[in-house]
Amino acid sequence: MFYKGKPSWLSVLLLVFCVSFSYAESIEKTDSLTEKKTTFNPGEFIIDHVLDNHEWHIATVGEHHISIPLPVIVYSYKQQRWFFFISSCFHHGKESYNGLSIASEGNLKGKIVEVNEEGEMDAAAKLPLDLSISKNVVEIFIIAALLLWIFIASARYYKKHPDSAPKKLASWTEPLILFVRDDIARPSLGNKYTKYMPYLLTVFFFIFFSNVIGLIPIFPGGANVTGNIAVTMVLALCTFFITTFSGNKHYWIDIVNSPGVPWWLKIPIPLMPIVEIIGVITKPFVLMVRLFANVLAGHIIALGFFSLIFIFGAMHWALGYGVSIISVSFDIFMMFLELLVAFIQAYVFTLLSAIYFGMATEEPHSNETH
Question: Could you tell me if residue 46 is inside a domain?
């Protein structure tokens, strides 16, 4: 099992199987208070891992939950006041606090809602304005701090050694920076690429690091940042606004009066201008959905394979051990595949953003007449 003091892959896999199956056996148990049998629910298991949260769960030891409580900042329309407290006041969502609670089921699961005097969700009350520092927000802060440290350290190295080959941290960042510049920015933007390089580098590294850190199952990883549609929407809107405000006269003329299009598609009903305007809106929408769907799907598939251990383990212990070999093998394969997807999604988002910028700033050709 061991060779030269290092554990073999077989011993590592067996350890994972034993831990996984031990947890699978503890999933199905009898509550001494309610005498109700609780079984593993794969749907809840997956949703709880991919949704945002008001606390950062680390581990569960027996009946004790180890988690990091996060700040809750909420404005209650019902009570007409702000609330500032720590999420531990909710006791992992099991109790209410100041007339507020975390919904545990339904379409509002995981969101802060108003409750009545009986402690039940008040369906008639408007949802509070939630500006809390959630798990995804903390992860974004961590990624931002990591990127600042990486690029500031790299910039300082280049200032001290302008003529030498990059070493240490700079040797890791330079290939990626040159890749974004030479393979994304220059081909799409031509001589105007320097103006957009700060944004393109920022969005590329942010998406890449978010995807990679999201694959780490332990703190400070595991947050599903780019699998949250609100995050991808903000990134897509940034690309949309930069494209819109960068658009030159030629870009807007092509949208309103597309050259080479028959006049009967413009008059009396402006079909082509309508199609072009819809295209302007759908471009950021496609960016948002593509990144969100690909990252979220990868997490769901990996968790789905892992759930098979618990499902078959609840049927029979032998099935649990047998399926665990297949599930863990597929999860390892998915992990390597997700590393590739992490890079591809960062590349595709950055490339399409650069293409949109290039279309908005493209100058008219000499043979065109206006």
Answer: no
- pTM given for the model: 0.80
Domain with 85 in it: 64-133
How does strand 55-61 pair with strand 37-38? unpaired
pLDDT value of residue 32:
39
The pLDDT of residue 163 is: 76
- Report the C-alpha gap between 85 and 80 in whole angstroms: 16
* Cβ neighbours for 280, distance < 8 A, ≥ 6 positions apart: 244, 255
pLDDT at 324: 82
**What are the tens digits of pLDDT across the range 263-321?**
666 677 777 778 888 888 899 999 999 999 988 888 888 888 888 888 877 777 778 77
Q: Over 50: is that where the pLDDT of 369 sits?
A: no
| Helix or strand holding residue 61 (H, E) | strand 55-61
Category of 28 on φ-ψ map: left (φ > 0), alpha (ψ -120 to 50) or beta: beta
Residues 146 and 124 in one domain: no
Instruction: Average the pLDDT over 339-350 and give the result.
Output: 92
In a domain, residue 19? The reply is: no
Question: Which of 77, 103, 133 is the last residue in one of the domains?
Answer: 133
* Domain stops at, among 88, 104, 133: 133
CB 228 within 8 Å of CB 136: yes
Output 243-246 pairs: Cβ under 8 A, ≥24 positions apart: 243/283, 243/353, 243/356, 243/357, 243/359, 243/360, 244/280, 244/360, 246/357, 246/360, 246/361
CB 125 within 8 A of CB 114: yes
CB atoms within 10 A of CB 350: 27
- SS3 call for 23: helix
pLDDT > 70 in the chain, percent: 85
